[in-house]
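Allow me, if you will, to draw on your knowledge of protein folds for a short while. I have a record of one protein: its chain in single-letter code and its fold written as discrete structure tokens. Could you please explain, in whatever detail you think fit, how the structure tokens follow from the sequence? The record follows directly beneath this note:
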Amino acid sequence: MNETTFVPPHKIIGVAVIANDQGQILIDRRRQEGAMGGLWEFPGGKIETNETVEECIQREIKEELGIVVEVGEHIITIDHTYSHIRVTLKVHHCRLIQGVPQPIECDEVRWVSVDELESFAFPEANIQIIAALRKWGNGGGRVVE
């Protein structure tokens, strides 16, 4: 007997944790018709060939939300396998430089506090980002001015 094992495709994703001056984080809701439709996420997208993580995040945020961000410190890298895809999320803290977030390639955008994140439904891999943000926000990385 010859059994074949399904190996899901692997995507490397640049993810932005965009904070505003009030300490809120920008999240967006995935379109209903897409994969994991209706779930909330931290914005970002697939890293293209010959593109750095920072370039990917800047490009994706401009395309998806119509804003310009400065990509800062790396927060966490997550490797997660769903039934249909394996993702590596390279998550960076970002600062809004220009524009007002618009739901260009998503259903909705919201500014929320780290404490509010638990009340939104996120894809499973994003739970580790939220845990890292809790640590980050409690003196685990952010400089308090």
User: Anything to note?
Assistant: Confidence is low (pLDDT under 50) at residues 139-145. The chain is about 20% helix and 35% strand.
